[in-house]
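Worked example 4.2. Below are the chains of a multi-component assembly; read each line carefully before continuing.
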Amino acid sequence: MSEFDVIVVGAGPAGASAAIKLATSGSSVLLVERGDPPGSKNVSGGVLWGDSMGSVIPDWEKTAPMERYVEAKGVSFLTKDSKISIDFRSRKLQERRSGYTVLRTKLDQWLAKKAKDSGAMVAAGITVDKLAFKADQVIGVEQDGDVITSDVVILAEGANPRVAINSGIREKLVDRDVAIGVKEIIKLPEKTITERFNLTSPKMGFASEYVLGFLDGGVKAGGFIYTNKESISLGLVISMKEMRENNNTRSFDLIEQFKEHPYIAPLIEGGRVDEYSAHMVQEGGIKSVPQLYGNGYMIVGDGAGFSFSNGMVLQGMNYAIASGIAAAESAMKAKIKSNFSKGSLSSYEERLKSSFVLQDLMNFKGIEDVTWSDMIHRGIPNISEELFLSLFSENGQPKKHLYNNLIRSIGSSEVPRKDMIINMYRMLRRM
Amino acid sequence: MVLEIVVMIKQVPDSQEVVIDPVTFTLNRSAARNVINPADENAIEAALRIKDKVGAHITVITMGPPFAESALIDCMSRGVDDAVLVSDRAFAGADTYPTGLTLAACIKKLGKYDIIFAGEESTDSSTGHVGPGVAEFLGTDQASYTSESWYDNGFVYAKRELEDGTEVVKMKPPTLITVLTNANDPRRATLRMKIDATKKGIKTMTLADLGMPPEWVGLKGSPTVVKSMKAIDEKKREGKKFKLEEIPKLVDELIEKKIISI
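Applying the procedure described above to all two chains together yields the following structure tokens:
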């Protein structure tokens, strides 16, 4: 007889959602978390998109510690001198759900408390060493020489899946799988943020992704700015491949370059850096998704490679929550059948395949080739800068047609025309 | 007869996260998470080392609000046997005098005690009063500024770090020992013990349980009166940014302002 029905390793959105779901349905759950309090080791951009949380905490929108509702979403290309943006704002985004900006130290503590209130035992400040096996069946977790037993273990350990790797159930991470995210939380008064970002109320927020086409040495990185109640989350994501190819570019140098850009600096002017952090980011798409289940275990959230980025949006927490819930449902079903074998837990992957979690990753297979392409990082920013300069400046010369301007701008780009065309096609197909 | 050890701990705001309120100039504790006072961690470890060697029953006590429970569970997850939270609204606003008195009352209630451990001082007030205060209220011997302690053949030994050297004192129990920060390397909680501790839970004592008159505790029982507080204005220093290629200009300016000379 196991000590717990389920042990969940990691109290981020994925693990906490699984624990809440299981505990509310009467399962005995142990939720183990390295950080104390939960959330203190966790980093995300972060915007929580969608309503995945609604299926574990129906009133979450009223009770969870959310920062601002995203009413304005931007996508921008930055060159050294220019900013070319889509700045989409719509009252209709309140009818059709967008997302909330969140601060993870607050959110994860709240989720862990919800798990505790639902009846789960929460053990914070403890690092699990590895899974415990009996023959080829996972029977619990090992920590400091002790084995704590459970029928099922749900691994929700985040972007650095140490336990899974130490237990031999997944490959080591390779450069392709991960990027590095660096982030600062910059304090500004609530009113200043609302005014500066042109928001309709202090409850409303702005979230934008940036293609940083101007960084020293042509390093490719994606930036983001999200507004919280009284702070701004500003950061960037850079792939390991880019880091290495540029002689281990220092990520903190890049964030400084981003902050000093002529059209970013005014947004954070007068702000005080309150926190800085860095974390691995899952970036590999479907290619980086490991075997998701086995005898007595399931892998959820970032640890399973569940994050989505197409350059326009960057999502992870909604995938984490949805996968946590799917794993909880499969664990409950396995308990009814008293069968915790790989075959029995395969229903977890079925659930993911019928939901957006795996469908998005499959449908957008190969998107990372586009998002890290020269076309996105140099071609489009330079061409559009050239194009808009010719459209919006007046030098007393006869005007040209838009088409001619466009052709001339493309011609002036340093990215070979052939690459541009191939990647343009890929982008249209994959994005 | 098993050795009875009591460890007194306190929760303090994590000193790395404390910020000063720019308006009131008081510490904004709410911004920082609460941790076990660093020296108290060493006191717990000192007690556990005696338990490891000669066997003991350890009780950890703290006076504080209900959220102090997690700190007590944390202590139990390292090998402490029992935990008592002394908590009552009446204790609010206590300075070091009624705090010592209250903790002493709690220790008396627990029954037999051989060694009492406390951290040398807390990071949030740094008075170092409470440990010695408790020893006085209980009428026990005490050894402060200790880096090491052990129990042998009915005696308690403590190594004191003093300005002019170290001193080893030999005491008959009951005795109180205050432990220096960084005196030892505190062990970490284990999952097995954390589960057991969470299941076992902590005990709570209120003012009524201690049977103390209300005027002895909390703000009423505190002789300290803060008449006023003054914050020293930080002088804004002039700053100027130079680019890498402007270093010669920077040097010139520094020479001109007589900050450096060649």
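Take a moment to check your reading of the output against the notes. The CA atoms of residues 37 and 402 of chain A lie 57 Å apart. The mean pLDDT of chain A is 91.
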